[in-house]
Amino acid sequence: MSMATPELALAPVESWQQQLQGALRSPGALALALGLDVEALPLARGSAAQFPLLVPRAFVARMEPGNPRDPLLLQVLSSAEEDVTAPGFSANPVGELDRYADRPGLIHKYAGRALLVATGQCAVHCRYCFRRHYPYDENALSRANRLQHVDDLLADPDIGEIILSGGDPLLLSDRELAQITERLAASDRRVTLRLHTRLPVVIPDRVTDALLEALGADGPAVVLVLHANHPREIDGPTARAIGRLRATGVTVLNQSVLLAGINDDARVLAELSDALFAAGALPYYLHQLDRVAGAAHFEVGDEQARRIVGRLAALRPGYLVPRLMREVAGATSKRELAPLYD
């Protein structure tokens, strides 16, 4: 029987908070980790300063060393194309800054549900993020503010779902999340809690026993919407994290963004659906890119997007084909784009 070396046996296990603290925060550090020449990379200058690199090492470990076009790397490394002004792209692509802001930190877009910007912090900075210009400082919520918003929404008979977004709501502490689920559980009304998060993908250890207890079966119905774009994002630890959430009674879905050069291929999306389903998550939405300033180089045209989904439908059963969606500012719901079939 082989024995672990003393060095490995004594290596400390980092908490998810320590992993977040140790995330890479500069192109140079990321290039060094992947054996790339940072001087040869076409990095953005202005946008990189305004929206700096942030990526946990657990996510970097899934990137291919030496490959500057790695699909996971392209999601987090700034490109000089971000500094190019593109017509139709803005800092407010879905109208959140002027149409839906009832109160600081509260966004009410659609009937029957409301969204809390639970925190302005993320565990990873995705270069296509539609809230990369969002004024988080102006919408910051204290714990008391956050809970007051929850109480107000529970008192509104028209609200059937409370959505926690951000930033990433799983950057709240387990206790802060438990306080929210306890309020929903104590309510006379049956209100679903939905969380939109990338943390189980980029730091799977965020799925702690305390988190599972906070989201557990004795509380409200909980829907957790992951965000994974490429099959390599679903590694063993992420699959185990999804399985633990499912075992606790949490419904786990996934939404992706269709991104040029990353997942604009039906076979790549089929592999992603396979990996998600094997782990216990259903493909839910495939979003057309929100036209946020700095992300134009990721855009896939609507006709091409519809053909990709049509080809995906030929490769996989319907429950593994996410709905192709676009968000339209001022619309009463997201708009579905019908597949085009070859």
Q: Helix and strand string, N-terminal first?
A: HHHHHHEEEHEHEHHEHEHEHEE
CATH superfamily of the largest domain: Aldolase class I
Helix fraction bin: 25-40%
Structural domain count: 2
Residues in β-strands, percent:
5-15%
Instruction: Report the top-level CATH class of the largest domain.
Output: Alpha Beta
| Number of strand segments | 10
- Rg over alpha carbons: 20 Å
Task: Please provide a written account of the structure.
By secondary structure, this protein is of the alpha/beta class. It has 2 domains: 14-83, no CATH class; 101-336, Aldolase class I (TIM Barrel). It is built from 13 helices and 10 strands. It has helices at 6-9, 16-21, 27-34, 46-50, 57-60, 73-76, 143-154, 174-186, 199-202, 209-214, 236-247, 266-279, 302-315, and strands spanning 101-103, 106-107, 113-117, 161-165, 192-197, 222-227, 251-257, 282-287, 323-326, 335-336. It has a 10-stranded mixed beta sheet. Strand 7 (251-257), helix 12 and strand 8 (282-287) form a beta-alpha-beta unit. Helix 11 (236-247) crosses helix 12 and helix 12 (266-279) crosses helix 13. The radius of gyration is 20 Å and the shape is globular.
Q: Gist?
A:
The chain has two domains: 14-83, no CATH class; 101-336, Aldolase class I (TIM Barrel, Alpha-Beta Barrel), CATH 3.20.20. The chain is 31% helix and 13% strand.
Produce the secondary structure layout.
Layout: H1 6-9, H2 16-21, H3 27-34, H4 46-50, H5 57-60, H6 73-76, E1 101-103, E2 106-107, E3 113-117, H7 143-154, E4 161-165, H8 174-186, E5 192-197, H9 199-202, H10 209-214, E6 222-227, H11 236-247, E7 251-257, H12 266-279, E8 282-287, H13 302-315, E9 323-326, E10 335-336
Parallel strand pairs: 3-4, 4-5, 5-6, 6-7, 7-8, 8-9
Antiparallel strand pairs: 1-2, 2-3, 9-10
Helix pairs in contact: 7-8, 11-12, 12-13
